[in-house]
Amino acid sequence: MELLNIFLILAVAILGSTFAGIAGFGGGIIIMPILTLFLGPEAALPVLCLYALYSSVSRAFINRKYINWQVNIYFMIGSIPMAVIGTSLFVSLDPDLIRRFLGVFLLIIVLSKYCPGVKTFKMKLWGFIPLGGTTAFISGLIGIPGPFAAAFFVNYGLTKHSLIGTFAFATALLNLPKLGVLAINQYMTMDIVYLGTAIGLISVIASYIGNRILHKVSDKIFTVFINLVLLFFAGYFMIY
Questions:
Q1: How many CA atoms lie within 13 Å of 163's alpha carbon, on the beta-carbon side?
Q2: Cβ atoms 196, 50 nearer than 8 A
């Protein structure tokens, strides 16, 4: 890979990780297109998994005092086995169709909050078991489940640091079996490990920067910001 391409990937990684440090998700979607462009889809997914692991662990550590451990236990029950299945199938299914379906689903969730006469959906604790399974399966297929799962974390009532810390820990967990499946199937070459680690280490610093910005944002503004981000990613999934 050319030095310029590596520089561009690292620059986008800083942008995506800082954004994820503020919103709690979305870094993967910002980074995935440039990884796919320069590496191809089969190499992009393992690099993205390594990046997500470093990035999620750093955000979880920064917000460790606010993590909702009950949510993560329920999420983990569903996510671990489905992460293995989804990652095993990612090369054989059409990811574009899945992305468009998720885009429509996200749009419905966000807009339903503002429709007259429509009761806002309230996530239950037990619901994180099937959510973990669904999220892990989608993550195994396309590598970027953040906005889909984040909508449910928000509707459970988590805000700001609790949302970011809890979701980051859950994301880190589901990336471990994915990396195992990719390693077994010989997708984890040394070049991929080096690049994924470099992007991941950059994400640690960028996550801290994003967290410092988050401290200056009120809960109300944060909620509006998250809903706007979800709307953006809904459109992104449906169009691209």
A1: 26
A2: yes
What pTM does this model have? 0.75
CB 13 within 8 A of CB 202: yes
State the Cα–Cα distance between residues 194 and 198, nearest whole angstrom. 6
How many CB atoms are closer than 10 A to CB 117? 4
* 197-234 tens-digit pLDDT: 988 888 888 888 888 887 777 767 776 776 777 677 77
Q: So where are the chain's domains?
A: 3-239
Q: What is the 3-state secondary structure (H, E, C) of the chain?
A: CCHHHHHHHHHHHHHHHHHHHHHCCCHHHHHHHHHHHHHCHHHHHHHHHHHHHHHHHHHHHHCHHHCCHHHHHHHHHHHHHHHHHHHHHCCCCCHHHHHHHHHHHHHHHHHHCCCCCCCCCCCCHHHHHHHHHHHHHHHHHHCCCHHHHHHHHHHHCCCHHHHHHHHHHHHHHHHHHHHHHHHHCCCCCHHHHHHHHHHHHHHHHHHHHHHHHHCCCCHHHHHHHHHHHHHHHHHHHHHC
